[in-house]
Amino acid sequence: MNVTNFDDARLTAVGLLAEVHAGLMARLQPALAAAGLSEVDFETVIRLARSPEQRLRMSDLAAQTGLSTSGVTRVVDRLEREGLVARQACAHDRRASYAVLTDAGRERLESVLPQHVQDIEDCFTGLLEAKELEAFLGSLRKIRAVVRPCATAGATSGDVEPVPGC
């Protein structure tokens, strides 16, 4: 495919998505930093908090965050030193372990969530009407299923289908 149209809507879509992501992260970062959390720290603890039993297999956490296994190990090591996450051995597979949110991790999340959610409301979801937000979330899920099929690894909610190989 030879594309010579620099005004191609596909280029605009990816460019806008990148700009919005960068802008959102810049707006959300100060509240996270005030709570002593980096973006990857927050993503890790919020994924644990939203998971069944507030825990995930390390391999599933890596798949959900898009980190390598060594990358997620480093993040969990750091969070474990801070007392926000603990490791738990898997009872039926000695090779596997879980990252588990601790009480201190829940408290840290609870301290940052009001401002974080307000920031999201102010510069993202609050700008959309309910039907727009619903359609936007559906579109994001459709795209995520293709570009990050393992992003829901370990999730057991009824609206998430397990992905083979994740």
TrEMBL record:
This is MarR family winged helix-turn-helix transcriptional regulator. SUPFAM superfamilies: Winged helix' DNA-binding domain. It holds the Pfam family MarR_2. Residues 10-145 form the HTH marR-type domain. It comes from the Bacteria. InterPro entries: HTH_MarR-typ, MarR/SlyA-like, WH-like_DNA-bd_sf, WH_DNA-bd_sf.
